[in-house]
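Contributing new complexes? Match this layout with zinc ion.
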Amino acid sequence: MTTSPISSLRCIACGTQHEVTTARFACQSCGDLLAVEHDLDALKQRFGDLKQRFDQRASAFGSGVWRYHEMILPDLPAASIVTLNEGSTGLYSRPAIDAFVGCKRAQIKHEGENPTLSFKDRGMTAGVSWAKHVKARRVACASTGDTSAAMAAYAASADVPGVVLLPHEKVSLEQLAQPISYGARVLALQTDFDGCMRLVKQLTESGEIYLLNSMNPFRIEGQKAIGIEAVHQRGWKVPDWFVIPVGNAGNISALGKGLRELHALGLIDRLPRLAGIQVAAADPFYRAYKNDFAQRQAVVAQPTVASAIRIGDPVSYDKARKVVQGFDGVVGVVDDQAALDAKASCDAAGVHICPNSGVALAGARQLVKDGVIGKDQEIVVIATAHGAKFSQAAIDYHSHDGGPLHNTPRVLPAELTAIHGALG
Ligand SMILES: [Zn+2]
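Output block (do not edit by hand):
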């Protein structure tokens, strides 16, 4: 017996529908991005009580993405799933973090606890599983960081060759280590990141090599499990706010999509508000927001410690704009120093996060100061990657006077009295 697909792909600009199995992610009518759309009535009819299903799987099932299989890719057969037990990340409450932010409860959803240490694994398990389902022979992305690490890990797990395009001599060893270790074919091109993006699009145009960049709409479906899981961990009680860093704007788009679907399916009784936070060195989305989204802005992104969100022209601008407007959301901005201080504060509470996550945490603190987030409210801050991916930022901050929370190691003679002296 064959059942008709629950999902389809719809152009976010002109609304044209495309087959869910297509390997091309530009609208055939107007060229804009496609989004996965689920027929939620059909979904309810086919799978019944989703809350019960998800609750039952909570303790027994390793993946915090596929625990929500019916909401992620309902048409994907379980046999096609490629998983590294991603998700199931911690949701941390610490008095020190509440005090830092200044509101009643500020929980950290730590996506750095994923297998390749960033939230990208959630999207990639969905993208690579779907690639396997549509029998892709190779997968590719252009990336200078977390995306290539995640793609390489999942491609290796699926036994599908992975190709990573990156700009020659513009990537650190830390960023190279994961994709080469996972066996991806890494091609360092004599161009910049935008040049790599252009070439990966051309390379995948024929559909022969499957594109896993942020244009791939299936990744959003896996990524949206962050919000679903966080709310599930809170006993299906939504916080007043989610606060999330914004670079390419795919993550905030995914978060909004998941929450809206949870609401439409009746698993939550209200929607939270969303706050997207940018870093001052790359703040096109903030500028557009300040201008009531009258027009899309692009900037030349400057160097910043928050390198993962150093994006001058966010790919998912339109999706993210709709999410911010639909969730009574706000967009904030903080500078590098505020992000590093927030990171140091969170790290010292035992939750080791990356500088990009520090941007979100610093933004939350600023929004409380500005009276946008109430002191009596509960928030969830999405931390996107682990501090261990950014050791240099921590070393720099702590090895000299990097900020008020610096914890500089002291050099002493090898004598007990000196140690006692230092310990007071
Ligand atoms: Zn279109």
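Reviewers usually confirm one structural detail per submission. For this one: The two ends are 75 Å apart (CA to CA).
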